[in-house]
Amino acid sequence: NAGADSRTPVTVIGLGMMGTALAEAFLKAGHRTTVWNRSADKADALVAKGAIRAATAAEAVSASPLIVVCVLDYEAAHEILGSVGGLLTGRTLVNLTNGKPEQARKAAKWAAEQGADYLDGGIMAIPQMIAGPGALLLYSGSPGAFETYRGELDVLGASQYLGEDAGLAALYDLALLSAMYGMFGGFYHAVALVGTEKVEASAFTALVIPWLQAMMASLPLQAQAMDANVHATDVSSLYINKIGFVNLIKASQEQGISTELVAPLQALVDRAVAEGYGADGLSRLAGLLKKPQ
Ligand code: FVH
Known about the structure:
This protein is an alpha/beta fold. The protein has helices at 2-5, 17-28, 44-48, 57-62, 74-81, 101-113, 143-153, 168-195, 201-216, 219-228, 238-255, 263-274, 284-288, and strands at residues 10-13, 33-36, 52-53, 66-69, 92-95, 117-124, 136-141, 158-161.
């Protein structure tokens, strides 16, 4: 059909769990989708669904104006693309590999030297969410590339453009991951703690979810306090939280579980109080991270 013919051909390089989901989404949306992976057999299922298998990375790059890369890390991306850079001239490279801002900026510079447009991206979704309503993909780099391929990128999930500095998507991605890991870490400690009394994780999780949701509601107010750098509180002081942490750490030790997940936060609360911020609220802590000890 004419609609399908007019769709931009897309190449996906890297067919791990995420790359496979990305390729599948482009296929389902009707794009001619060329795929390449170091271990060629990972393309088999996609080829059965209509994807075109490229025999080499060079063939994959040459097949489409839009090339999406999603591999283990930037070193792997460079291993794949380093020798075929010349073929990128006039094309757009979208790198959805997780990495550091500095790596993204270097990749953008390298792509510009090849005559390619570059977007770096952070995928705020698991593979099963791709092309679904909850998937968010962050992009930074060439504004022209984002404008040109916005429609294609929207196939993968909601697209948010953060700015011309190619490092921004990686920065936001890592920051959001840190919020996630903090939440997961607290959850793991909580489950281990009640587990010492044979409470099952599933039963306890029913209490954790509404509790975290209620606490999440405090984030906008904490953020306002951080922006204004005014941390007076009528909720709970750092003094009170310091005592709470002593109880949490001692109880964990007495129940026989490791405190390695919660001890670093206790150390920061203790530092805040030692530096004279005991009357402030928890929002004070983010600022203290800007002056590492
Ligand atoms: N999976 C997820 O939920 C997260 C969600 C957020 C974004 N991440 C990032 O996506 C990148 C890929 O992650 P993945 O989950 O697809 O990872 P794997 O399934 O382990 O696939 C890894 C692919 O990388 C290829 N690869 C590794 N090393 C090399 C290399 N030296 N040269 C060429 N390719 C390489 C690997 O190929 P193969 O082992 O199958 O031959 C896979 O295609 C990642 O940045 C996440 O942080 C996913």
